[in-house]
Amino acid sequence: MNNLKCNICQSLNIDNFLIKDNWEIVRCNNCKIVFVKDFPSDRVLEDLYGEDFFKDGQKSPTDGIKLHNNPTYINAKKRIERIKKYDQGNGRLLDIGCATGLFLKAANASFKYSVGIDISKYATGFAVKELNVNAKYGTISDLNFSQQYFDVITMWDVIEHVKDPNKYIDKISNIIRTGGLLVLSTGNIESLMFKIQKKKWHLLIPPKHLFYFSPKTISMLLKKHGFKVSNIAYEGQYTNIGYMVDKLQSLHVKNKAINFMSTIIKKFKLNQYNVYLNLYDVMTVYAIKL
Question: Which of 145, 203, 224, 150 is nearest to 181 (CA)?
């Protein structure tokens, strides 16, 4: 396929998988990773993650949602608790794709040094100004930390957004200590939800999501760079009702039942209530650097 090479295994044996919103999505016949055929430019990707992207009622404590009730912050605190089962904290933590800094805010209580990086100027500016956390604007190439510097590195719903997962994991492998913990989350293209929904799967959203992993392909990528996967969990998250209904409306534009439900929720101001949701289609991967 025009010498298109797999980012994970470097195979040229690539076939068509499906088309979503005019984006061609392909699959490697060797390792089975699924990815967008033609990547958008860096400028286009950066423009995708402007102020509007982070004002959805969850990614920043805005629109009247206080920090303690923000579902992203609630999820962050629970993630810290799980990380402590693998690493007792008190060390150095890096959050790649830190967004508006809600996870960093939660991490500050458990780590002596925590820093984040994100490609969104708006998000990192918000994190520094509003949450007073150490967030830097840039990409992983801009990180200049010494080898084996970090004890824990996290990537929450990030790896599927980047154009070169190999490059990211290779960089992480260099700056995390031996025995250090890498935790990342990403959708599972082999999940039951994808098999049922196919093109309407809520995580099939090119060009925001460029890669679509399975337990096998994410494990293969991490092993390639010296990591051993300790656990792959399906943990679920808290979300607010308004965000959930907005997401359903975007996927099912003409569904009268969903539109009616949205009207009722807004009428009775139920949109900011949090609910726990687990569709078992998002993997949280815990991996140790060997």
Answer: 150
Neighbours of 42 (CB within 10 A): 11
pLDDT in tens, 143-172: 889 899 999 999 999 999 999 999 999 999
What is residue 1's predicted lDDT score, i.e. its pLDDT? 65
> Angle at which helices 215-224 and 165-175 pack, to 10 degrees?
50
pTM: 0.90
Tell me which H or E stretch contains 285: strand 282-289
What mean pLDDT do residues 87-94 have? 83
Rounded distance between C-alpha atoms, residue 60 and residue 71, angstroms = 10
User: Read out DSSP for 21-52?
Assistant: TTEEEEEETTT--EEESSPPPHHHHHHHTSTG
DSSP 8-class letter at 146: P
d(CA 154, CA 286): 10
186/218 Cα distance (integer angstroms) = 9
Contacts for 196 with CB less than 8 Å, ≥ 6 apart: none
CA–CA separation, 8 and 89 (whole Å) = 31
CB 99 within 8 A of CB 118: yes
For 170-196, write each residue's pLDDT tens digit. 999 999 999 999 999 999 999 999 999
Edge-first strand order for the sheet with 282-289 is 135-137, 113-118, 92-96, 150-156, 176-187, 282-289, 227-233
